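Reopening this one. Same input as before:
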Amino acid sequence: AVLITFTQRLPESMVIDLDRHPAQRRAIATKKSLAKRGTEPSTAEVVVEPPPNDPFGWTLMSSELMQMPWGLATCFIYKKIIIPKLRPEPPKTDEPPLES
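Same output, byte for byte:
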């Protein structure tokens, strides 16, 4: 599926970005790891969590300035791309298949 918009991007919550706000995510992880009293900053292990993404979101493919009848407008082209690690896995069942 492809989605084309003019002048406005899709909301950030609908767009898949695997590197969204890296500095802010690292700051939050550092704060969590140093929250325990007596933790030495040089030896603290900082584990940065992946950014929040909608597994069924859109990926920005292209954006460019275009001349339209009403003037200049930015065209944004989004595409649905399957990223396996973001998709939830279907529940596994231990039941044997039904035989006819």
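So the earlier flakiness isn't reproducible anymore. For the record, Helices lie at 22-33.
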